[in-house]
Amino acid sequence: MSTNVISGNGNNDVKLPIYMDNHATTRTDPRVVEEMLPYFTEKFGNAASRNHEFGWVAEQAVEQARERIAKLIGATSKEIIFTSGATESNNLAIKGVAEMYKEKGNHIITQAIEHKAVLDTCKRLEKYGFRVTYLPVQKDGRIDLDDLKRAMDEKTILVTIMTANNEIGALQPIREIGALCHERGVLFHTDAVQAIGKVPFNVIQDNVDLASLTAHKLYGPKGVGGLYVRRKNPRVQLVAQIDGGGHERGMRSGTLNVPGIVGFGKACALASEGMAEEAVKLAALRDRLKDAIMGQLDEVYINGSVEHRLPGNLNISFAYVEGESLLMGINDIAVSSGSACTSATLEPSYVLKALGAGDDLAHSSIRFGIGRFNTQAEVDYVAERVIDTVKRLRELSPLYEMAKEGIDLTKVQWAAEPTH
Amino acid sequence: MAYSDKVLDHYSNPRNVGSLDKNSTEVGTGLVGAPECGDVMKLQIKVNPATNIIEDAKFKTFGCGSAIASSSLATEWVKGKTVDEALTIRNTDIVKELSLPPVKIHCSVLAEDAIRAAIGDWKKKNGQHSQPQPQAQPVEQRA
């Protein structure tokens, strides 16, 4: 990829393209890469080799990583199972609990704006006779705890609700959810991938029984994840979903990705040290971006809770401007849109739809994900480009013109058959 | 997704952006699409009453880059044509000219609809019969 250096708003130069899509993935921190490298070459052993030095070195490295990950989330190292990533962790947690506790009950509760790795796993279980309740979310993207209470019955075995949403950054009230689950003797799983290393998360204080983790969302490598499985109060049991050599205490067979695990551990160690400070920095950058945009443009709407939100997340709908055309106009900046045109399914974001904002605002949304390596100069450049492009596209927008003429767009009878 | 150079060109330098006086009898307005579908096109033509030649065309589009390019191209193509000639423009011509991928074909369909809707509106104003075209209407104006 070619890069250009151009002058930003301030005196600092910014390098293009700018990466501001840190909910999709993050750049691997160079300190993480450095620690991983020996485990590809001289320390290449299989952590399951019990009878030689190569195996012992690898196993030791894996155990150190396990401890670092456990420390970040307030767990013990024996409670961490390594997987290939959060999709596998979500599958293992939900299917593994469903299969283990099916004699006790067949009811699972989740919510509308979970990741597809959770929603589609639940849908599959429905085919096998499980009953799943999909709780709605409120306008701010958080569930109503009373809805959860009402949904629980004597057959409920599992509640699976994410800690932070990947599109709108909304933080669910997991501590209260976990407490409610523990009162009723129901297991609580949370997909915590977006939250780990970004906001405080502690499996004991937050009453979590299972938590899905992944390395690449916190400046670690792709292809390695973890599942926290509580060992006491209560002791959680799972039916393994991958059969084989009995690795990971029988819960997940398969040779461990030692370099990846080492990187995951280092990424967690870095997060343990720097998270509090980094969160303040990211929130300040995010607010700077938000204030610049909202100061210059009318009719922009923040999607999701402002108060209960990941520090680096900003999800905004720019009324009367379609998201993909906006992305095209800021093509030296990597961000995401909830527009149908940018998705494989040609459906606008189901997350934004679930907030009840209307499909038109989902089509007009942009997600900014600010991360460790973004600078203030980049934020200023992004704000300027977004503002200019939105202004240009609004001049091109028949909807903006109609709105300015005082026509209520919700009262127009649109002629088109839905084309997608 | 990679865009063709022609789509990028129309997106960056859209032709004939703007509005004509929708109350003029010489002007036909087509408004097609819907905000919840992610694209709305407004295409207007100004027809010389003596020759039936489209002397001017303007558009505004809410939609992706391909939708903007399709409607921009449509205004270029209708200009200088008679109304009847403009009705022969097919969405497939737009697809070919802009090298639109299959997922973007609906943008070209919408542009063809917009041309037909604009011509239909002009014909209606001028007492000519035509196939009724689907067309968005503010409810207030219908009453």
The tally of helices of chain A reads 12
From the N-terminal CA to the C-terminal CA of chain B, the straight-line distance is 44 Å
**Share of residues in helices of chain B:** 40-55%
End-to-end CA span of chain A: 33 Å
Which two chains share the most extensive interface?
A-B, 37 and 40 residues
Radius of gyration of chain A, in angstroms, nearest whole number = 23 Å
Q: What would you call the shape of chain A? A: globular
* Computed structural class of chain A: alpha/beta
Order of helices and strands of chain B: HEEEHHHHEH
The gyration radius over C-alpha positions of chain B equals: 14 Å
Overall pLDDT of chain B: 91
Oligomer: heterodimer
Describe the model.
The complex is a heterodimer of chains A (420) and B (143). With 420 residues, chain A is α/β, with parallel strands linked by helices. Chain A has 12 helices and 16 strands. In chain A, strand 5, helix 4 (116-127) and strand 6 (131-135) form a beta-alpha-beta unit. Chain B has 143 residues and is α+β, with helices and mostly antiparallel strands. Chain B contains 6 helices and 4 strands. Chain B is globular. Classes of the chains: A alpha/beta (420), B alpha+beta (143). Chain A binds chain B through residues 320-322, 324-325, 328-329, 339-341, 346, 348, 358-360, 363, 395-402, 407-409, 411-420, and chain B through 3, 8, 11, 14, 17, 19, 31-42, 60-65, 67-68, 103, 106, 109-110, 113, 117, 134-140, 142.
What's this, in brief?
The complex is a heterodimer of chains A (420) and B (143). Chain A contains twelve helices and 16 strands. Chain A has helices at 30-36, 53-73, 86-100, 116-127, 145-151, 174-184, 258-296, 323-329, 350-354, 359-363, 376-395, 398-404, and strands at 4-7, 13-16, 18-19, 80-83, 107-111, 131-135, 156-160, 187-191, 210-214, 225-229, 300-302, 313-318, 333-334, 336-337, 365-369, 412-413.
Give the SSE layout.
The complex is a heterodimer of chains A (420) and B (143).
Chain A: E1 4-7, E2 13-16, E3 18-19, H1 30-36, H2 53-73, E4 80-83, H3 86-100, E5 107-111, H4 116-127, E6 131-135, H5 145-151, E7 156-160, H6 174-184, E8 187-191, E9 210-214, E10 225-229, H7 258-296, E11 300-302, E12 313-318, H8 323-329, E13 333-334, E14 336-337, H9 350-354, H10 359-363, E15 365-369, H11 376-395, H12 398-404, E16 412-413
Parallel strand pairs in A: 3-13, 5-6, 5-7, 7-8, 8-9
Antiparallel strand pairs in A: 1-2, 4-10, 9-10, 11-12, 12-15, 14-15
Chain B: H1 5-12, E1 27-34, E2 39-47, E3 54-62, H2 65-78, H3 83-86, H4 91-98, H5 105-125, E4 137-138, H6 139-142
Antiparallel strand pairs in B: 1-2, 2-3
